[in-house]
Amino acid sequence: MAVCIAVIAKENYPLYIRSTPTENELKFHYMVHTSLDVVDEKISAMGKALVDQRELYLGLLYPTEDYKVYGYVTNSKVKFVMVVDSSNTALRDNEIRSMFRKLHNSYTDVMCNPFYNPGDRIQSSGSVSLSRAFDNMVTSMMIQVC
Amino acid sequence: MEGLTLSDAEQKYYSDLFSYCDIESTKKVVVNGRVLELFRAAQLPNDVVLQIMELCGATRLGYFGRSQFYIALKLVAVAQSGFPLRVESINTVKDLPLPRFVASKNEQESRHAASYSSDSENQGSYSGVIPPPPGRGQVKKGSVSHDTVQARTSADAQEPASPVVSPQQSPPTSPHTWRKHSRHPSGGNSERPLAGPGPFWSPFGEAQSGSSAGDAVWSGHSPPPPQENWDQTTVRTVASATTAIEIRRQSSSYDDPWKITDEQRQYYVNQFKTIQPDLNGFIPGSAAKEFFTKSKLPILELSHIWELSDFDKDGALTLDEFCAAFHLVVARKNGYDLPEKLPESLMPKLIDLEDSADVGDQPGEVGYSGSPAEAPPSKSPSMPSLNQTWPELNQSSEQWETFSERSSSSQTLTQFDSNIAPADPDTAIVHPVPIRMTPSKIHMQEMELKRTGSDHTNPTSPLLVKPSDLSEENKINSSVKFASGNTVADGYSSSDSFTSDPEQIGSNVTRQRSHSGTSPDNTAPPPPPPRPQPSHSRSSSLDMNRTFTVTTGQQQAGVVAHPPAVPPRPQPSQAPGPAVHRPVDADGLITHTSTSPQQIPEQPNFADFSQFEVFAASNVNEEQDDEAEKHPEVLPAEKASDPANSLRVAKADSKTEEKTAASAPTNVSKGTAPLAPPPKPVRRRLKSEDELRPEVDEHTQKTGVLAAVLASQPSIPRSVGKDKKAIQASIRRNKETNTVLARLNSELQQQLKDVLEERISLEVQLEQLRPFSHL
């Protein structure tokens, strides 16, 4: 279960970021921001001509003592960053991959909505939300905090 | 009993109620069920009710005469207003609001109450309102009286007490007819605002009458009115304000609130045609966006509607989806809250979608919270209103197509990681195999091996492409990747253990399996079933078994010990190679020991083997399939081959392919014809004969020669028993081969040391250049 999930646009501004509310959320925002550097490095390291071959799942970006940060980038340079609690040792790489896959699918669903302008924040407001399904999916992936 | 003075409204109300309760029209109401229900509907405590009944004298009489009934009603009003129940209060309490009766069973009563109240509320707006226009075919007795009452009361200046509104609000408990009661206050208050949608709404009340629609909000046509299941008077609102009753009527017109009537559907279809003439086609998202934006709903709501209605998530609306979206917009316009999930009746009918539909899971809902990727278009179990089959069938097929497209796309999206090797390794693994971002050396080797093997076996094109990339990547990331890919490499090595691959194909498949399933587990996949393919002498896989079986008593004995240490390398394309290199490899090239026969044999002893070139050339074609035994003679031939090639091959084993260039010159200096192999392709073309072939024909020749020579060897022992001369000749040959191999061995060892040194230096450089190591 992730502790924080963020969707970052191509221009490196956040489209969606959500953390478990128990912690100081700013810390997660900061971690996500710093992980962007790693993401960029990984993208560039993959090679200029290898965009097709580049795998979307970036893997563990960097670990801290409490958390591990995983990254995923789409072909349109939209990045998904997930912060996972390090104590959650049962979380395997494949599970992270599947979580990213679900994220990606939900994101494409949001994009398919013609009323969503690419580049807008994926936000829910009031009773109706542009991204209700997206929110629900993210909620299901976040740590269930009582 | 004192006289009861009733106001006009009360008079009418009471008489109406009396007539309602007076089932038998006997002018006196027995304490029957209706009366009791009425009193129950008054929401008064039982004792109060009893008190009322006592006061009015019904208990005395045993029945409710008209006066008693009126008194009782008045007392109910008194009680509801909070005044103490006394007979005197009947007349003393001024401006008593009408008794409120929760419409438990009798809609009419509450309707009456509501109508009265609404009428009293909306006096101004109703001044011109006439009893509902004709067309009330289904009008019940109550509604008739209601209408008349309405007519009567419309002129009354009633006390628009707010409590009167409550009947409108209380009915939410009642069945669907009162579903919209939350709107009644709004209906009363916002009638002006509703004037816009009013005309739009009005046709809704005409479903049963079948009267044509009025005006729509944005299209100029009103959608066919929703179906009214109960005895709603079909009201054709006169342009302006819709009465609360009408609103109520119309609101309850959704009997299943989301059912689309035929007229509505026809209207939607017409609208669809204006955008997309082909009824089986799609409305693209942008066009739909414009269209629905005209409805002036907030964007968020529109996007929510879209989320609900775009069933297959393809960014376009089919006819069914469009109708559902339109219906939702209409509903929203009229104040209905949007559902969380698509109502059952609005789900597009997808007839053909058997396989992917999770019909059981979501009987009537779109699984938005579920897996959006799959988006199973569950078949709507009940679509009574969508009776047209023609659009459905076509749409279903189209929806199915779109869905399949989407599903395929989503699957390609989602499954790029889940390429679990099929149980049957013979099936070509054509789905995209995830490329390790950090290909390790072993990984790359496997890729090469696979690639080479795939040349003969599986058309795994992605694999074919990968090695080149990997070769390039390796340069940059080799050290890091190696570290990171260790786990995988272990998996690879374990799974691709040389010993477990008796055949080339098997090894390929094994590697493929491990490659595809590398991420999750490092368990070695079961040895693949042997493939009925001819072994390729130069193919990547090394037929170890064959090598071992033949190696008895030969130099290849050393080879036996070697393979376990050798990581899953693409088997040397040249059969002779392995045998030769085994001894060399056993020296210590762990993962990199280039088992490729070609490579190591390509030692700097070029000058010695030029003579073998001819021989090699002659035998190339014949012996290419042989392995192992061809080593000795072929080795020299191979040695004579391009040093670069040899180095390249050697390098392919090692992580540091860059050294190829470095060592190439060194080899060149030894006097062989340098073949300037680019390190990258070198790394990539592991040792497969196929790769090297285009680069160095010479090399191939040499390898062929080696193979040929080695092939000739096995025959020798066999003939031992036959001919002494043959034995001696063979002994001589073996000795020559021995010397050659020994020399080769020494040279290779020297080369190995050089390569290792270079590798270490490169690693150091890499570390310096890449301080940020990925953990």
TrEMBL record, chain A:
SUPFAM superfamilies: SNARE-like (SSF64356). One of its GO terms (cellular component) is cytosol. GO terms for biological process: endoplasmic reticulum to Golgi vesicle-mediated transport. Keywords: Cytoplasm, Endoplasmic reticulum, ER-Golgi transport, Golgi apparatus, Transport. It comes from the Eukaryota. It is found in: Cytoplasm, Perinuclear region; Endoplasmic reticulum; Golgi apparatus. Gene3D superfamilies: 3.30.450.70. The keyword Transferase does not apply. Belongs to the TRAPP small subunits family. Sedlin subfamily. PANTHER family: TRAFFICKING PROTEIN PARTICLE COMPLEX SUBUNIT 2. This is Trafficking protein particle complex subunit 2-like protein.
